[in-house]
Write a structure and sequence with these properties.
It contains four helices and no strands. With 82 residues, the protein is mainly α. 0% of the residues are buried.
Amino acid sequence: MNTIEFILSQLTSNALVADVKTVLQEQDPEFPPVETSFQEAACALASRIGKEEAEKLLAAKEQQILSDLVYAAYLGFQANLS
């Protein structure tokens, strides 16, 4: 059970998002302009609804992405078992 908990903790850590972003920056030439557009949109959002509310919304979106990654990992484990 410790292995499952360890894997889950790795998949849900904020460091994973930073690692994925780093890989995308290094490997996908289409990512940097998308990231720049995202940062601009995040700044615009913060100026419209306030920095604190924008940070809450972006943190919730990040958690959603982590949840999707956990589900994808689960599907991968299931595929390996079959």
